Amino acid sequence: MSSPPPGPNYSWQPQPGNYNSAPSYGQPPKKSRAGLIIALIVILILVALGAVGVLVQRLVSNHQDTKSNPGPGTSAVPPPATTTTRPTAPKTTAPKPTPSPKPNAPAKTTPATTAADLGQRFVAQLNANNSKGAAAFACDGSEQLIPLLMRALVGPPTKLTTGAPLGQAPTFVIPLSGTSKGATVTGNLIINELPPDPICVRAFTITTKSTTG
């Protein structure tokens, strides 16, 4: 049913109302756009946090790998091999032995020519207990007898003297007297003189002088 047309004195006026509440056609509602923006921001933040976490994890793992496996640039270079040179021992020249001075040859004693002279030289060897020196005056065949007689009859301290020779060539007897082995002794020295052999001692005897109280 249509409304009756206005009359000739009717003027149209807009009706009061809330025109702002009317929806704007062709545009999404304001509340839906704000929620979408917030959701996008949250997603971006989560993605950024994930990317940062992955980057940090890679950096940490690379740092650990660098510590555990140092690169060739940081590897310790072994010190160069040092060659030890052995010191050469100085050549030592052996000192030349100095020639020892030759001992002076003992002065040659003139051989005894008389029985008295030979008797004094022989008794001097007995007093010195020198068997070798005494044997040097022995006749041929008596070289071993004289040392045996000395060991048996003479002993230090010995102090003998000779008397005047008795007899004539070829045999002389010289009396002996003195002390030997701490006792008073007497004895005889037998000398031979047979030219062309030199004068020599054949033997001697010594007996301890007994003392009567």
CATH class of the domain at 115-208: Alpha Beta
CATH topology tier name of the domain at 115-208: Nuclear Transport Factor 2, Chain: A
Low-confidence stretches: 17-22
Secondary structure: helix percent = 25-40%
State which percent range the strand residues make up: 15-25%
Count the beta strands: 5
Architecture per CATH nomenclature, i.e. the level-2 architecture of the domain at 115-208: Roll
- Secondary-structure element order, as H and E? HHHHEEEEE
| Separation, N- and C-terminal Cα atoms | 213 Å
Shape assignment: rod-shaped
Number of helices: 4
CA radius of gyration is 75 Å
Largest sheet: 5 strands, antiparallel
Q: What's the rounded overall pLDDT mean?
A: 77
Query: Pairing-aware structural class of the strands and helices?
Result: alpha+beta
List keywords for this structure.
single chain; 213 residues; alpha+beta; Nuclear Transport Factor 2, Chain: A; rod-shaped
What features would you describe in this structure?
Among the domains are: 31-70; 115-208, Roll (Nuclear Transport Factor 2, Chain: A), CATH 3.10.450. The radius of gyration is 75 Å and the shape is rod-shaped. The chain is of the alpha+beta class and 213 residues long. β3 and β4 form a beta hairpin. Helices cover 31% and strands 17% of the residues. It has 4 helices and 5 strands. The protein has helices spanning 30-68, 115-127, 131-135, 145-153, and strands at 158-162, 166-168, 171-180, 183-192, 200-208. The longest helix is centred in the N-terminal third of the chain and has 39 residues, at 30-68. Strands 1, 2, 3, 4 and 5 form a 5-stranded antiparallel β-sheet that branches. The model is unreliable at 17-22 (pLDDT under 50).
